[in-house]
Specification:
The structure holds 2 protein chains of 2 kinds. Chain A is an alpha/beta fold. Chain A folds into 2 domains: 135 residues, Glucose Oxidase, domain 1, CATH 3.50.30; 188 residues, Rossmann fold (3-Layer(aba) Sandwich), CATH 3.40.50.880. Chain A is built from 9 helices and 19 strands. In chain A, α7 packs across α8. Chain B is α+β, with helices and mostly antiparallel strands. Chain B has 7 domains: 108 residues, Rossmann fold (3-Layer(aba) Sandwich); 61 residues, Dna Ligase, domain 1 (2-Layer Sandwich), CATH 3.30.1490; 136 residues, ATP-grasp fold, B domain (D-amino Acid Aminotransferase, Chain A, domain 1), CATH 3.30.470; 119 residues, Orthogonal Bundle (Carbamoyl Phosphate Synthetase, Chain A, domain 4); 137 residues, 3-Layer(aba) Sandwich (Rossmann fold); 59 residues, 2-Layer Sandwich (Dna Ligase, domain 1), CATH 3.30.1490.20; 191 residues, D-amino Acid Aminotransferase, Chain A, domain 1 (2-Layer Sandwich). In chain B, 34% of the residues lie in helices and 21% in strands. Chain B contains 30 helices and 33 strands. In chain B, a hairpin with a 5-residue loop joins β10 and β11. In chain B, α13 packs across α15 and α21 crosses α22. The longest helix of chain B is centred in the middle third of the chain and has 20 residues. Chain B is globular. Classes of the chains: A alpha/beta, B alpha+beta. At the A-B interface, α3, β15 and β16 of A face α8 and α13 of B.
Chain lengths: 348, 911
């Protein structure tokens, strides 16, 4: 029968209040409010480390329909700070609770998405069973993501490998599991190293190519990683995905900027300028690279807002979207084949 | 890649009469294609035999042919019009098959034209069962174990049972079925071979218990493919997808599994070679083993495309037409956001559930079991923020309640399955045979009902998605009391992007969330109520009337608002009205829309019986109805009052009485004399109507009859006339008098009819006008009414008067070229007939005939015409004489003359 309803709220820093019912762990969570429009793949989404310091709102109203399976997780724990939904299935709520994640259901998520969309700039928020004033204070207390390194330690402590074949070294700044998995499927040995390693350490792994993966936070604040990327350029074929793409841009002297409400979903059309095709891509990023006025070659653009989705040069290529999908369409998978080709040709 | 410049003119092939498996979705898709191709500067030539369609209105194409859909006629049209291309992918299976016939006959090459949208090779690969199987397997996909049976290849003796038989090139699985025994299999194979135009069937392992999924693919000439929508069947494999409840987007597949389907759909579309346009691919999926098989593919816009368009806001047919003429997806805008491109995949933040509507009750000799042959006659779509909300809206919109509650049959593929499952959940029984997710959601509905019954928390129940009516039952309150205890729902946009971008297109549903920002115009508003799901007796004709009304009110300067739940229709196209609400046509939803829109008036007369039945409830709630329909409705529905009125007006009516029992019926029959016509009051399409020639037959007809059954004197061998009348409360203007070919006693919807009627002398015409004027005054009718008269021995008898648009309005409008609905709208707004400056008389442009189409191949008993309507659609034919027109209509119906008042009778009466 009906368990006692745990009345809760989500409060944004601008004071907007969204009532809901707590279905996750007790307590208060806070972070930058962001939404994804993907209609499936909730397990992959909440475990994607790019969502660190963010509260994830699902615009699709029914979450948890097909249960939870460990094989579908993108990390060993839930990474986002809080989860906001219209309707959650019990097994899914139980998983979030067990993971210690504050989660709400019964929230008017459409109104919330419109609010985030219309704010013009990302908003901090807090959610939980506390009163509205306390939640508002907690939201205002939350440091903005911009310009600071994130507190949580992410990525591996020690290097490890999966797969076999020519070696690609993957710099893990909070990388989804699907990226090494997809690389290994192309017949590569993927050697995963901590994101804190410098270029010499990375080159010491004797890679045929290096890929810098996705991760959370403001790329311009990651001065160490930018330096590492700069040092790698020209020494090895260099690839980037999402955060890796932004770091590559910064290393090339481009700027990054914050999008008004990010690109998060599984239906983002991107034009592949080299091949003249449209890819339906998976995206999860709050920052983008600005390439106007530079001589860096833009290879992909967003058909939604014209922002840069990919760049390339003689010995580097990167994409802002997620070719590994998980969750979402596999249109961009050939990106991994290109890395594999490059690794194989580097070997011969 | 921009538009092709080598094409100047395009022939669009329509889908012909409404049949089971091919309904108004092709009027919707064809109309969209006509509109967009003309806007692009092409000369559009249209051929269709169905007069009830919007697309055959003169303004939709540069040249419109209301002609039989056969190879010979099409070749003649192509010869005359010389189109640069033929577009066959928007007219259903009919158009696709005709394209193949044109190709086979060498017409396309001979006349120097080409197919666009799908080429012959692609159509053959998709439609030829063997070729399709080989193509798909070669592309690395799996198909169920199967064999092809045709003239050369017999049925192997060891084929595993149960098996499913799928005939090649047939519509809605016609001729196929599921066999559970060897004998059954042999029988169905034989039927299937006979049904297939190429004499080929596929016998396939029956995947009992597997889930069925459909994906709507769009592809362009640059090689881009997108999925517009995934649709999951609620019923497991074995129920035709047209008969299954469905939900969009899919609910039960983990993302990685869904992506397997998406990739497989593209592989399939590319292997078959659908280069430019829409296609739909069906899959079977075993949730345990994760086996995935391709079932079939339609290389064209389909019923599912219409559903997917309405479920997502993505205009598939319109884009399919543009892709066919060379555009690529990225070149085309997403109309809904106005900012983004069509090269994307819609993201939904709601759920769309479709419920099929069946009419098995009309065919008592057909066993009401669902299988691989489609039987549904219509569908209603429910949009909601949760599965229960959408499910319950679809259920409500279906307007059908089971007669009996055989809950022990809830695991069987029967029309009432989901009603029984819901009821079983209420009673705490198990829910066998369906996916656990759907079972859980059905149980959650039952739990929410218990909850509201216990707590009386109406707000929570509404947010969950329970309809007012159900809450009223649970709380033992009248419906308006529930209404008084809740707020007005919010208006949420179907925006294709889950609110990520601001929507420009005014397509809405209602839910208990805060409403989207939306600025309506400042003009006065008129709400037109649609007719809900198609059913026998209420179909596309009423959609035609509603769409015309919307256009007419727009021309008169009003903002028009449409409410309907039927995803197949033109009326639920977001381009049709100023604002569209996809909601069930029920009092609750109409009142909610009225509360939001504050219309100057609501039109209930144009959507058939469904909106008309809401008139009293709306009036009681203080909603202004256009055209003063209430008095007229009362009189027409209350036989006593109506009889008195006719007496007062001096109009003849067959003697009649109202009976609550056989004894009373017998007394009436003794008084008026046999034969008598027995009919329940308040019915559509003559449900349960019987002609009884003897006391014995009367006893039989009265068994189980409801109280208030009407017993009328039956006029034998009378000629029946269908009259559509424009009226302003004072005067009447006859828009058309149709003469039935069959004698009175055959339901008017099933009878062939002609105009000008050979029996209609000037004297009779004058008398009809006199009667119509008297009734106009007597009913104070404004707008439209339909009169059914019997002509016998030079005398006219009133059989029925309906204060609403009739089934015959589109036909008469086409036959006379008079915009009847436009005029009726002006009358409803208070103008007089004098203001309309009409000619003295309506004259048909030539002789026209219409013939009914029966679902006899699916329901054998549908072949006999009688007092109960059984036809699903109609065709129209024109000629210099009535006989020629009737011949043409029969040809369009694919039938030679038989039955009814045959040609000679008509010929004799010709001058």
């Amino acid at each position: 029968m009906q368990i006692r309803m745990r009345k809760a709220h989500l409060v944004l820093e601008d004071g907007a209040v969204f009532p809901g019912v707590a279905v996750g762990a007790p307590g208060i969570a806070a972070g930058e409010a962001c939404f994804t429009t993907a209609m499936a793949g909730y397990e992959e989404a909440v475990t994607d480390p790019s969502y660190i310091a963010q509260v994830l709102v699902f615009s699709y109203p029914l979450i948890g329909n097909y249960g939870v399976d460990a094989s579908r997780l993108e990390a060993d724990r839930v990474q986002c700070e809080g989860v906001v939904m219209r309707r959650a299935r019990p097994a899914w709520s139980a998983f979030l609770t067990e993971q210690g994640v504050v989660a709400l259901e019964e929230v008017d998520t459409r109104r919330l998405v419109r609010h985030i969309r219309d704010a013009g700039t990302p908003l901090r928020c807090a959610l939980g069973e506390a009163d509205v004033a306390a939640l508002r204070a907690r939201a205002l207390d939350e440091p903005p993501i911009d310009g600071r390194p994130l507190a949580r330690h992410i990525g591996p402590d020690d290097p490890y490998s999966i797969g076999s074949g020519p070696r690609v070294t993957l710099v893990d700044l909070g990388c989804k599991r699907s990226i090494p998995r997809r690389l290994a499927q192309t017949g590569l040995e993927v050697h995963i190293v901590p994101g804190t390693w410098d270029a010499d350490a990375i080159m010491a792994t004797k890679p045929a190519a290096v890929l810098i993966g996705n991760g959370p936070g403001d790329p311009s604040a990651l001065t160490g990683a930018i330096q590492t990327t700069r040092d790698l350029l020209g020494r090895t074929p260099l690839f980037g995905i999402c955060l890796g793409h932004q770091l590559l841009g910064l290393a090339l002297g481009l700027e990054t900027f914050k999008l008004p409400f990010g690109h998060r979903g599984a239906n983002h059309p991107v034009k592949d300028l080299d091949r003249g095709r449209v890819l339906v891509t998976v995206q999860n990023h709050g920052y983008a690279v600005r390439a106007e006025g530079s001589d860096v070659r833009v290879t992909h653009v967003s058909l939604n807002d014209g922002t840069v989705e990919g760049i390339a040069g003689p010995d580097f290529a990167s994409v802002q979207f997620h070719p590994e999908a998980a969750p979402g369409p596999l249109d961009a998978l050939p990106f991994f084949d290109r890395i594999a080709e490059r690794c194989r040709s580097a070997q011969t | 890649m921009p538009k092709r410049t080598d094409l100047k003119s395009i022939l669009i092939i329509g889908s012909g009469p409404i049949r089971i498996g091919q309904a108004c979705e092709f009027d919707y898709s064809g109309a969209q294609a006509c509109r967009v191709l003309r806007r692009e500067g092409f000369r559009v030539i249209l051929v269709n035999s169905n007069p009830a369609t919007i697309m055959t209105d003169p303004e939709w194409a540069d040249a419109t042919y209301i002609e039989p859909l056969d190879e010979e006629t099409l070749a003649q049209i192509i010869e005359k019009e010389r189109p640069d291309a033929v577009l066959p992918t928007l007219g259903g299976q009919t158009a696709l098959n005709l394209a193949m016939e044109l190709h086979a006959a060498g017409d396309l090459d001979r006349l120097g034209t080409q197919l666009i949208g799908a080429d012959v090779q692609a159509i053959r690969k998709a439609e030829d069962r063997e070729l399709f199987r080989d193509t798909v397997v070669a592309a690395g996909l799996h198909v169920p174990l199967s064999v092809i049976v045709d003239a050369q290849h017999g049925l192997p003796t060891d084929f595993p049972i149960p098996a499913i038989v799928r005939p090649a090139f047939t519509l809605g699985g016609f001729g196929g079925g599921i066999a559970h025994t060897r004998a059954e299999l042999e029988r169905i194979v034989a039927t299937g071979l006979a049904a297939s135009p190429v004499g080929q069937v596929l016998v396939e392992r029956f995947l009992g218990g597997w889930q069925e999924h459909e994906l709507e693919v769009m592809s362009d000439s640059a090689g881009n493919c997108v999925i517009v929508c995934s649709i999951e069947n609620l019923d497991p494999m074995g129920v035709h997808t047209g008969d299954s409840w469905t939900v969009a987007p899919q609910q039960t597949l983990p993302d990685a599994e869904y992506q397997r389907l998406r990739e497989a759909a593209f592989t399939c579309a590319r292997a078959v070679g659908v280069v430019t346009g829409g296609a739909n691919v069906q899959f079977g999926y075993d949730t345990v083993t994760r086996d995935l098989v391709v079932i079939e593919m339609n290389p064209r816009v389909s019923r599912s495309s219409a559903l997917a368009s309405k479920a997502t806001g993505f205009p598939i047919a319109k884009l399919a037409a543009l892709l066919a003429v060379g555009y690529t997806l990225e070149e085309l805008p997403n109309d809904i956001t106005g900012k983004t491109t069509a090269a994307f995949e819609p993201a939904l933040d709601y759920v769309a559930v479709k419920a099929p509507r069946f009419d098995f009750a009309k065919f008592p000799k057909t066993v009401p079991l669902l299988g691989s042959e489609m039987r549904a006659v219509g569908e209603s779509l429910g949009l909601g923020r949760t599965f229960p909300e959408a499910f319950l809206k679809a259920l409500e919109g279906r307007e059908s309640v089971p007669k009996t509650w055989e809950l022990d049959r809830r695991g069987e593929p029967i029309p009432e399955r989901w009603d029984y499952l819901l009821e079983a959940a209420r009673r705490g029984l198990d829910l066998p045979g369906i996916h656990t997710y759907f079972a859980d959601e059905i149980r959650s509905i039952a739990a929410a009902e218990h909850e509201v019954a216990a707590t009386g928390d109406v707000a929570a129940a509404k947010r969950f998605g329970l309809p007012d009516k159900r809450i009223a039952e649970l709380l033992h309150l009248p419906e308006d009391a529930v209404r008084a205890r809740r707020r007005i729902p919010g208006r949420l946009a179907v925006d294709s992007c889950a609110a990520e971008f601001e929507a420009k297109t005014p397509y809405f549903y209602l839910s208990y969330e805060e409403e989207d920002d939306y600025e309506g115009g400042a003009r006065e508003r008129i709400l037109v109520l649609g007719s809900g799901p198609n059913r026998i007796g209420q179909g596309i004709e009423f959609d035609y009337c509603c769409v015309h009304a919307v256009q007419a009110f727009q021309k008169l300067g009003y903002e028009t608002i449409m409410l309907n739940s039927n995803p197949e229709t033109v009326s639920t196209d977001y381009d049709t009205s100023d604002r569209l609400y996809l909601e069930p046509v029920t009092l609750e939803r109409v009142l909610d829309v009225c509360a939001i829109e504050q219309p100057k008036g609501v039109v209930v007369q144009l959507g058939g019986q469904t909106p008309l039945s809401l008139a009293h409830g709306l009036a009681a709630a203080g909603i202004p109805l256009l055209g003063n329909p209430l008095g007229a409705i009362d009189l027409a529905e209350n036989r006593g009052k109506f009889g008195k009125l006719l007496d007062r007006l001096g109009l003849k009516v067959p003697a009649w009485g109202v009976a609550d029992s056989f004894e009373e019926a017998r007394a009436i029959a003794d008084r008026v004399g046999y034969p008598v016509l027995v009919r329940p009051s308040f019915v559509l399409g003559g449900r349960g109507m019987r002609i009884c020639a003897s006391e014995e037959q009367l006893r039989h007809a009265m068994e189980g009859a409801a109280p208030g059954t009407l017993v009328d004197q039956f006029l034998q061998n009378a000629i029946e006339l269908d009259v559509d009348v424009l009226c302003d409360g004072q005067d009447a203007w006859i828009a058309g008098i149709l003469e039935h070919v069959e004698p009175a006693g055959v339901h008017s919807g099933d009878s062939a009819c002609v105009i000008p009627g050979p029996s209609i002398t000037p004297a009779i015409e004058a008398k009809v006008h006199e009667m119509a004027t008297a009734l106009t005054r007597g009913l104070d009718a404004r707008g439209l009414f339909n009169l059914q008269l019997a002509l016998k021995d030079g005398e006219l008898w009133v059989i029925e008067a309906n204060p609403r648009a009739s089934r015959t309005v589109p036909f008469i409008a086409k036959a006379t070229g008079i915009p009847i609905i436009d005029l009726a709208c002006r009358l409803m707004l208070g103008e007089t007939l004098a203001d309309l400056a009409l000619p003295e008389k309506a004259k048909p442009t030539r002789a026209w005939a219409k013939e009914a189409i029966f679902p006899a191949e699916r329901f054998p008993e549908a072949a006999d015409r009688g007092p109960e309507m059984k036809s699903t659609g109609e065709v129209m034919g024109g000629g210099a004489t009535v006989v020629e027109a009737y011949d043409r209509a029969l040809r369009a119906a694919g039938r030679s003359r038989h039955g009814g008042r045959l040609g000679p009778t008509l010929q004799e009466s010709l001058p």
